[in-house]
Amino acid sequence: MRVTGRLGDWRIVALMLLVCLLVGCKGEQETERPPSPPLELETQGSLTMDADTAAVIHLPGIPPEMMVDDAGQIVVASGLENVGVGTLVLMEGGSDGLRWQHPDHRTGPEAIASYQWTLEGPAGSSAQLDDPTSRTPIFIPDMTGRYTVGLTIANAEGVTGRPASLTIHAGTWVGNGAIHGASDDVHQCVECHADKIETWRGTRHAITLKRAMDGQASPFYLENCIHCHTVGNNKLADNGGFDDLARELNWSYPEELEPGNYAALVAEHPQLANLGNTQCEACHGPGSDHKEDDETIAVSLRPELCIQCHDFLQQDRHAQWVRSGHADTSLPQIFPDGIDNTKCSTCHTTRSFVAAADGTEIIVGDTEQLSCQTCHDPHSAAGGNFYQLRYYGSIQLPDGTNMLDMGSSALCIHCHNVGEGPEWVHQEPDLWRPPPQAAAAEMLAGVGGYTYGETLDNSPHANTTRWSGGCVNCHMVSSTGEGTGDFLSSSMNEPVGEHTFQVRFDNGTPDDPSDDYENLRACSGCHGEVPRINGPAAADYDGDGQVKGVQDEVQGLLDLVRGELLAAGVEWSDDAPYWGPAETVELRAAVYNWSYVNNDGSRGIHNTARAVELLQLTCRQLTGREAPNAILRTGQAPELTLQERFGAERPWLDRLNWCHLIIPLMVLGLLSAVIYVIIVAYRGERHPKEELT
Question: Which pLDDT tens digit goes with each residue over 217-234?
Answer without folding.
Answer: 888 888 888 888 999 998
